[in-house]
């Protein structure tokens, strides 16, 4: 297949980066994962806006306009004949002699992107997934979609080793988010999810869910909730670009509610499906 390397679309096998690229050495960059349904980007603009926001927040200036990049991504999807899958895109500060401080002078940022076929995770959406709880050991700028994912990786690995799909992270008593997803609880018909501040990523799927809740007058509280509230929840689900609205039916070997996806989760899955049609 094809990949983007800076301003060019080239063969994936020819896309090479420098061993002193700061993304490789320091994780000095940001990324996005964008869903492609029916050969078209879903919420592409929102992802591009977040990409720009993330990169500006660490002082990387995009070498091309957002419009330019969007056009290239469209072309990439087309050339790869991608119908159902994802685009992975990242930008790093570029290659320079290793030094923690930003390189002085003109260093050209390095943009790469490629596509991958990915089916809709029907079994998970239908049956729900198992999860574990783990302390959130990440830094205090989780709102930046940074390439530095060690905290997230270690959490996800712990989940995998326990036969689980996701790790739900908490800072002390407060639930933050999954290792690669946002987490929601439902209590007495109210949908509750962590407010979008520096402690979580402002998920684009989360924002779609919050918008459809508003449209359908499903009550929402965007606020911090606790381990105790999680344990007492009627329903729990997670959201992400690749996981859509996935029910959580087990947390640390304990069933959520009666252990099957609940009615509000089902309703939100339906409403989300309508959004992607
Ligand atoms: N992960 N929180 C974290 C830490 C994430 O990594 C993600 C996405 C989300 C959900 O964001 P969105 O709805 O915009 O996908 C929340 C992507 C899919 C990934 O790293 O693969």
What does this structure look like?
The chain is of the alpha+beta class and about 280 residues long. The protein contains eight helices and 16 strands. The chain has helices spanning about 20-25, 45-55, 65-80, 120-125, 150-160, 205-215, 225-230, 265-275, and strands spanning about 1-5, 10, 30-35, 40, 85-90, 110-115, 130-135, 165-170, 175-180, 180-185, 190-195, 220, 225, 235-240, 245-250, 255. Helix 6 (about 205-215) links the parallel strand 11 and strand 12 (about 220). Helix 6 (about 205-215) crosses helix 8 (about 265-275). The longest helix is centred in the first third of the chain and has 14 residues, at about 45-55. The radius of gyration is 19 Å and the shape is globular. N-(5'-phosphopyridoxyl)-D-alanine binds near residues 152, 201 and 241.
Secondary-structure blueprint of this entry?
Layout: E1 2-5, E2 8-11, H1 22-26, E3 29-37, E4 40-41, H2 44-57, H3 66-79, E5 85-92, E6 110-117, H4 122-127, E7 129-135, H5 150-161, E8 166-171, E9 174-178, E10 182-187, E11 190-193, H6 204-215, E12 220-222, E13 225-226, H7 227-232, E14 235-240, E15 244-251, E16 254-255, H8 263-276
Parallel strand pairs: 7-8, 7-15, 11-12
Antiparallel strand pairs: 1-2, 1-6, 3-4, 3-5, 5-6, 8-9, 9-13, 10-11, 10-14, 14-15, 15-16
Helix pairs in contact: 6-8
The chain binds N-(5'-phosphopyridoxyl)-D-alanine.
């Amino acid at each position: 297949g094809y990949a983007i390397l800076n301003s060019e679309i080239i063969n994936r096998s020819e896309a090479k980066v420098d061993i002193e690229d700061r993304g490789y050495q320091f994780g000095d960059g940001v990324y996005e994962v964008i869903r492609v349904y029916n050969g078209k980007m879903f919420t592409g603009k929102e992802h591009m806006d977040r990409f720009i926001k993330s990169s500006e927040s660490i002082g990387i200036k995009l070498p091309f306009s957002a419009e330019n990049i969007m056009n290239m991504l469209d072309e990439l999807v087309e050339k790869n004949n991608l119908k159902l899958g994802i685009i992975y895109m990242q930008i790093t500060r570029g290659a320079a002699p290793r030094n923690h401080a930003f390189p002085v002078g003109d260093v050209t940022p390095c943009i790469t992107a490629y596509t991958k076929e990915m089916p809709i995770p029907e079994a998970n959406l239908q049956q729900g997934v198992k999860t574990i709880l783990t302390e959130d050991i990440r830094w205090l700028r989780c709102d930046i979609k940074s390439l530095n994912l060690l905290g997230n990786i270690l959490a996800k690995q712990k989940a995998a080793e326990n036969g689980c799909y996701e790790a739900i992270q908490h800072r002390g008593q407060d639930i933050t988010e999954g290792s690669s997803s946002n987490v929601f609880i439902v209590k007495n018909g109210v949908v509750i999810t962590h407010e979008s501040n520096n402690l979580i990523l402002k998920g684009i799927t989360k924002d779609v869910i919050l918008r459809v809740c508003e449209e359908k007058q499903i009550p929402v509280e965007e606020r911090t909730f606790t381990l105790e509230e999680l344990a007492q929840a009627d329903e729990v689900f997670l959201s992400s670009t690749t996981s859509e609205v996935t029910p959580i039916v087990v947390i640390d070997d304990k069933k959520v509610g009666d252990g099957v996806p609940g009615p509000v989760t089902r309703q939100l899955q339906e409403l989300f499906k309508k959004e992607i049609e």
